Amino acid sequence: MKDNDGVQMIDCKEAERRLHRYVDRELSDHEVVEVQRHLEVCENCRMRFRFEAGLRRLVKNAAQNESAPQSLRERIRRLGRR
Ligand SMILES: [Zn+2]
């Protein structure tokens, strides 16, 4: 499957490989488009990416929230590092 704009279809393995860099916004525009193209057709990866992005947001919020207990922040941070 190939679109006329030259965007390649990547498989789940490739999408997973890019997951963390995608969440960290370290992918090139082209790579992001390819990932997004895959997420449109693959519900599994869509769920994973959504979960990971949500987790990353949680980590960020928790890290900035001084009132969060230290132990909780540590736990969330460890989760995000996985
Ligand atoms: Zn997939």
What order do the helices and strands follow? HHHH
Note the total helix count: 4
Global structural class: mainly alpha
Helix content, binned percent: over 70%
| Distance between the amino and carboxyl termini | 32 Å
> Largest beta sheet, briefly?
none
Strand content bin: under 5%
Question: How large, in whole angstroms, is the Cα Rg?
Answer: 15 Å
The parts where pLDDT drops under 50 for at least 5 residues are none
What general outline do the C-alpha atoms trace?
elongated
Average of per-residue pLDDT values: 88
Count of discrete domains? 1
List bound small molecules: zinc ion
What is the number of beta strands? 0
Q: What do these coordinates show?
A:
The chain has one domain. The protein is 72% helix and 0% strand. It has helices spanning 12-23, 29-41, 43-64, 70-81. Helix 2 packs across helix 3 (43-64). The protein is elongated, with a radius of gyration of 15 Å. It binds zinc ion. Zinc ion binds next to helix 1 and helix 3.
